[in-house]
Amino acid sequence: MTEPTPNATQAVRLAIEFLTPYVAADTEEKRAEAAEYIAQRLSGSDALDPIHVIRGQLYLGELLLLSLAKANGAEPEEYRDWAGEWLRTNSPRLPE
Prior knowledge:
Number of strands: 0
Helix content: 55-70%
Oligomer: single chain
Largest sheet: none
Structural class: mainly alpha
Order of helices and strands: HHHH
Mean pLDDT: 92
Number of helices: 4
Radius of gyration: 16 Å
Shape: globular
Distance between the termini: 38 Å
């Protein structure tokens, strides 16, 4: 049986649960362990619905981008435009 549908706060906490050990990993072995933990949470009888995990990652990404916009001096009414520009600018810079 899967867990109930999380609300936005629960989804963000789930995203943080997954991201925290991955970001803290300072070796490929620790990253693999973090990825294995995530894989275990997404499989089995108590598996999380992947759409809720994705939703949480999107919410968290949005919060982080809006915080980055604020930290870079954007005004509240500019946060979303700033975040969109940041995504457009940085996407081509990512390594293949």
